[in-house]
């Protein structure tokens, strides 16, 4: 079966401090899974899409648990590699509505960062309805960057639309390095989904229209700017759309961007116009931030509909 | 001793997901008890009233635990029946401030739904200061409907004031069925406590004054319309009163209506005028929605007074 | 791919009281999944086998969670049916090393009990290396019994070896009914895995050799008698083997039999002789009883090997 | 209704560290209720007896919760006094199978220790089938000692059989003081239930027969010596009986003696002979030590029967 | 090393109900430490200051745990006394964003309340950069009052600036008694940090300027009035400053005042002007109220900076 | 003050799965600290000794928490280095009485493994009453090995007795490498504390007397062989002693060896003869294995005495 979407990257074990307690002082932790692309993959699978994810995990409890979680959600992980020479990355963090969130990363030398071009199944990607990735992967290692580029190249050659979210993490690389990595990669994007700050790292612009124009000139057909608690704005160079964020009580803001991507991409694959896709992105993100964990609050279709009906969100 | 209030219905075990986690993904559950009328009974007992509850539970851990809880709170359950041929109903749900709440009901064929006219102790009801019930009971089974009618009839004959809350649950019956069940039963009511949507299912009106007039024409002396986060409105056909809802951080909105009933009925039994009773209803409901669980946040008199003093609520 | 084993039956949500607290007084519950056949299916999947399971679950959080769990473990649930007209069964219980275990079943009218012959994918079964089922399914409903028989018949016709575990539960049917149900069904069995008490319900024998002889006469090639804390005994009519149980600290004995089946069947499919298969069954069961939950302690291959190496178990 | 048994004493809030963690380092606590006599009262109520308890609690959350718990279990607490001038006692401890148990008592100046003769309802006691108390109460204060004596005196005058358990706690008084307190009080006892060490504090004997003889000479008709993990021994001066302790995995030994008393007294009230009463005492105690908490493991009649059937205990 | 600040008082064990559940009904508790001055001491230690605390704790798990906690945070407790004749005080409470908080104190006769002048190390205090205490200590016992006075006197003689927070608790003394205790003690203060209501208990004024003037006349150089959710106001008699409170989601307001003191005092010791010190006080308090517990949310310097950067707070 | 003992090595954050659940499937984790030498350091500090520990931790929540824990226990960590260029190591594991324990190590490139000779405070070591280290440190890095050697050398020069525990972990190095590392280092030991298997890696002997003789020949004055659940054996070449292990219910065997070392070294420092020191080692280890976590069950002096009194252990 031709997957609606293929994505790839690093997936890690997540140990989440009891919500509201600072990491340094928390005693109890709940286990989950984290990774920008796997978050989006699970988000789309819950909304009923056939989704494939690939990447490398270690031959250890966190690696097996991550694959089991995704497989359980219906994500096709048959191309994932269990690398018995490296550990699965691990992320330990706290969760707060508003206090700064503290994160300990244990991902250096991880299996996930050793993704390589040989892991890219060209035929599978060419068969998909869309390809999605984030800039994080390229920053993990030269191999992983090359794998990202190969996947993007295969998709373009096969006419598979590509979406890219820069998803810049300062812990992984500095500004100039991010620019060097992401300028070529976003060049493959038919759709760019990005925060405004992240976009500025790449193109230097601070204005939404300027930054969108920069990506549109380089080949994107649509640019979506995620504006956090304000909402999301999009343009195709001709029209512009804006959607207010959902007004919900925030428990843990982490994962909102990946969730937005899932909602937006899902809506587009279902043929909805941009403003409705923005609204779906905002509703999916609004579900996620009400639940501690990167992906634990991702809604299924029925929950999405219930939330939509509760008029939390109005498209305009 | 003559009880201040007698009520009856189905009481179930409740297993409540850790607040904030969606039911489908929650791992940890806390146990409590649920049931519209037992919520109100406990609410009034905590406020110092002598209260009786009757109904059927199974001869199993959930049934015994429900009776133990009510007995512990001082509710007289001496007329409750332990039915060893049917299980106690069970309800598993999640709790969110704002996400739609997901509920799994295991109440078909339950002991509670087999309440019957023979379970109604006529002398006891005739001795009480008031009788309260909800429309849920009538929708459980023909036997339970007949028991509701018998109790209402006994009360009217004995001059015991009757209050009714339609409390329509779409999972139990459809609109026409609710109308058929509740038109006769609300006819017994001296006091109707209802949501606006529920009232419309019964009488088709969408305006507060129209809907109140409909109940007043059929014999009610007072109609209270619960308007959710806006507050509550009441009329006796002559005067009108309105009370804003308490402004509190919501943890779990379930049980707010039953709690309002407890506060309102308690105030009336203590001889307070309608506007003060509305205020008490709103304060009790405001306590309950701050705590996960249908009845876990019901305040005692001291807590009620403390909350009132904190000026969370102003009567007007 | 031809599955190593196909099995079917009812799978339910499980809410497990905090180990050591009696069900009637426990406040905290952990969620898992229960079902004799799904336990065995997951057990074999963890040991590296390709396994298929089918059955019906409701279109509700417990049903989706059960499928997600099995799918995550690598069990092929593509033939499972989501029945949106019935709820998924639910089981609430406590867990003790030695106190009697208390269980509340909410499975009457469940989706799982409405399994029917049309749910049996004949081609799939005919393609498998083995078929396994328990007597529980036949006791759920006439439809479910017919489905069991159809699956057994298809397997026999296709030359697929059949294993049957009577797994008699007194809550589901009385003795004569069990006899009526299981005499024909065990007639399909190439391999009978049973407790001694359960076997007596079927054939009236109390001696291990007599009871084994009864099954062998009716066509079984091998009979395994599970003797609880003593161990397990087997015969093919010619030879006899015995294996002591593992000496481990018990946390929750539930699921030991299903785990034994997984270990034994896995070993046989890997071509091991009967005594080694008995030893593997005993090791897998010994892992499960050290962990609260029906299946939470099922080991993977690596864990099985580690346990075996720790000389907890000696084959003789 | 004439109660089967009346008892009295101090009941305290209990905060129990997560089993297995030392008190000084534990982070999580579960709340329960503790008090030798209320343990026995709840034990007997769960076994189906009508039981009354009296004593003083503070007008605070721990006091109300203790009464609610007992009332919920069906214990008649209508004679208990809520003393709004003193706090309810509190006990914080850890629970281990075998490590020494660490306890922090907060009971000095507690409401419970201010029990006084005026709290003793003479008519109620005279109407009971039996009176039970422990030596702890007398050690709390002179008022409480006088109340114990008054209750004992009333019972003797009314021909109500009295049972006494010295239950010596070194934290409350020293050896000579215990002797002074308990010699007169045990003089009222028809039945003495005691540990051997405690008896020695009172009468100086170290041999079971000598110590029993001492109590029999002073008027007891039956003496039961609780021998911990060995079991229990009894004599009426003519015959002697012994019962081995149940062989169960211990989680928390606290409360075993109170539980034994409940089982023994219940059996005697049901007319069972001494050896069967010893056996019931041992089974009830065996249930309690498998569960963390003083009284959380007290079985109901059905659980008692199940345990008895499991042949954990053999009468001889 | 000369400590930046020395403080003293009573420190108690804290058992905190699971946030959101009323104390009377909560089952689970988390352990922490409470005490106005130790809260401030830990707050300052986390911000990098050398801090000393002295007082008395019992020779019991709560006393040792309190010292271990403070020592762990780097607070110098070498002058603290372990008093093996009295227990450490204990405090059991619930935590709510807005419901009234219920507290059970077990501090009568505690080790902490027996602080005495002999416990005051004069040389150590004379060597410090500042001394801080609250009015609570003086209300514990005459000995503790005398110790407070001695410490204040020593500091004044040595030219060590003194800050006092009245911190009136109605449970410890009535209004006239507070006035009698605090008028002399606040006379030692170079800096008064107080709530408006507390100040009124002392000087009868209800206006911020009047109340400040009263303290300034009696020798204070600076008066800070903590105005709860509105913010904080300060004057030195010449200038006035105001700082809005941080807008954060409140989980547990307890400890906000002690945290404010830590932030304010720390900023002053780092040489910051009053308005910036007010801002730091507000940020530290804003961190604490987002976390359940009196001191669990106290930020370290890095966290303080991150919060400040998030523009939660604007100095004006 | 001259410390009784100085030790050094790597200390890591520990996240421990809820006891009894396999790591791959556990959802809840509790946080503690792990590290062979810090375990022994805390063990001795709890028994009343002045102890110093040094090593490197990262400038992150796990590093600060580890130092805070040790400082809280009274261990002098003033020579520890906070290395802001590397993360603190992390260890995630499960805890079982008997199932194999699964561990995920995140320590490659950790701050702890970058310990170097410059971190060794020569004067401080020369001032101590004893120096203790394990072979783990030498296997972390060449720098760490050199630091170990330097510390050992300084101690020998200053006449400070040295104890060494090889503590071989197969995950860190292979057999030949361990031999190469440990032959020179154990050459500094006045006291060797080792398991039999570990000793064989170093000297090839399998017999207790042979292996002891090998160490004695190379300069050790006393050799203690830890024999797990059997107990411990020691010789000085002249006499031999044996001590049975404590018979306790095991919850988590990890940390037993480090705990034994603390008990043994403490007893020797208090001047006790070898057989009593063996008994103390066994009692301390017996306390630790009853509690989940590497060091959470380490007893203080009072607990040690209580355990000793309970006759769990008999010296012979």
UniProtKB/TrEMBL annotation, chains A, B, C, D, E, F:
Glycosyltransferase as a keyword of this entry, yes or no, is no
Q: Which Pfam families match?
A: PfkB (PF00294)
Q: Which CDD domains match?
A: KdgK
What the entry lists under InterPro entries is as follows: Carb_kinase_PfkB-like, Carboh/pur_kinase_PfkB_CS, PfkB_dom, Ribokinase-like
Keyword list, A-Z: Kinase, Transferase
Record bears the keyword Nuclease = no
**What EC number(s) are associated with this protein in UniProt?**
2.7.1.45
Origin superkingdom? Bacteria
GO MF terms listed in the record are: 2-dehydro-3-deoxygluconokinase activity
Domain (Carbohydrate kinase PfkB) ranges: 5-299
Gene3D superfamilies xref list:
3.40.1190.20
Q: Which PANTHER family match?
A: 2-DEHYDRO-3-DEOXYGLUCONOKINASE_2-DEHYDRO-3-DEOXYGALACTONOKINASE, SUGAR KINASE
**Which family does the record assign?**
Belongs to the carbohydrate kinase PfkB family.
Protein name (Swiss-Prot/TrEMBL)? 2-dehydro-3-deoxygluconokinase
Q: Which organism is it from?
A: Actinopolyspora biskrensis
């Amino acid at each position: 079966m031709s997957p609606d979407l293929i994505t790839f990257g690093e997936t890690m074990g997540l140990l989440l401090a009891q919500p509201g307690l600072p990491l340094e002082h928390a005693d109890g932790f709940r286990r989950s899974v984290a990774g920008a692309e796997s978050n989006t993959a699970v988000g789309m699978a819950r909304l009923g899409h056939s989704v494939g994810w690939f990447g490398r995990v270690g031959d250890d409890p966190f690696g097996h648990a991550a694959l089991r979680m995704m497989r359980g959600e219906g994500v096709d992980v048959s191309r994932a590699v269990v690398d018995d020479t490296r550990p699965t990355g691990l992320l330990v963090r706290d969760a707060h509505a508003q206090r700064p969130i503290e994160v300990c990363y244990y991902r250096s030398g991880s299996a996930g960062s050793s993704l390589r071009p040989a892991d890219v199944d060209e035929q599978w990607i060419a068969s998909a309805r869309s390809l999605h990735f984030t800039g994080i992967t390229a920053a993990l290692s030269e191999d992983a960057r090359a794998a990202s580029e190969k996947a993007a190249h295969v998709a373009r050659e096969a006419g598979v639309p590509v979406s890219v979210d820069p998803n810049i993490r300062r812990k992984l690389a500095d500004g100039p390095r991010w620019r060097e990595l992401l300028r070529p990669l976003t060049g493959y994007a038919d759709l760019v989904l990005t925060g405004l700050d992240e976009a500025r790292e790449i193109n230097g612009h601070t204005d939404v229209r300027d930054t969108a124009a920069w990506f549109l000139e380089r080949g994107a057909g649509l640019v979506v700017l995620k504006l956090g608690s304000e909402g999301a704005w999009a343009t195709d160079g001709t029209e512009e759309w804006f959607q207010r964020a959902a007004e919900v009580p925030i428990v843990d803001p982490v994962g909102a961007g990946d969730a937005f991507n899932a909602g937006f991409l899902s809506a587009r694959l279902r043929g909805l116009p941009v403003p409705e896709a923005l609204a779906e992105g905002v509703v999916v993100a609004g579900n996620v931030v009400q639940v501690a964990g990167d992906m634990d609050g991702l809604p299924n279709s029925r929950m999405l509909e219930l939330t939509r009906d509760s008029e939390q969100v109005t498209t305009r």
